[in-house]
Amino acid sequence: MTVGDVIGLLSACDRDAPARLAINPLFPMAHRIGGVIASQDENGNPLVFIAETNDAEQIGHLPPDVAVALTWHEPTEAPSRRRRTATSPRDGGS
After folding, report:
1. 77: left (phi over 0), alpha (psi -120 to 50) or beta
2. Which residues contact 49 (CB under 8 A, 6 or more apart)?
3. Residue 33 lies in a domain
């Protein structure tokens, strides 16, 4: 993904919405963005890093719909619930 791709995707978003990093597909967490740094790779090509904050604070689990949209998790539905029947004490137990 290029900087142009990111700008294109972000241009459709609310400019006042907080931006977060989605980290770790196996245990998805949200992190605050701390900065954007322009650099170069080992061949001198331009490269941009989006960094988390200095305190590397996790601010909670990634919402399930975000993990699904990133294809990190499969869509799931809560299992249907059925009422449990009451149990009675067994005869002769002690």
Report:
1. beta
2. 36, 37, 39
3. yes
Q: Is the pTM of this model over 0.70?
A: no
Does some domain include residue 36?
A: yes
Q: How many CB atoms lie within 10 A of CB 51?
A: 13
Beta strands in the chain, from DSSP E residues, in sequence order? 20-23, 29-40, 46-52, 58-61
Report the number of distinct structural domains present in the chain: 1
Cα gap 58→53, rounded to integer Å? 10
Please write the tens of the pLDDT for every residue from 69-91.
888 888 877 777 777 776 766 65
> Is 28 inside a domain boundary?
yes
| 38-47 residue pLDDT tens | 999 999 999 9
Domain span including residue 7: 3-69
> Which residues have C-beta within 8 Å of that of residue 8, sequence separation ≥ 6?
none
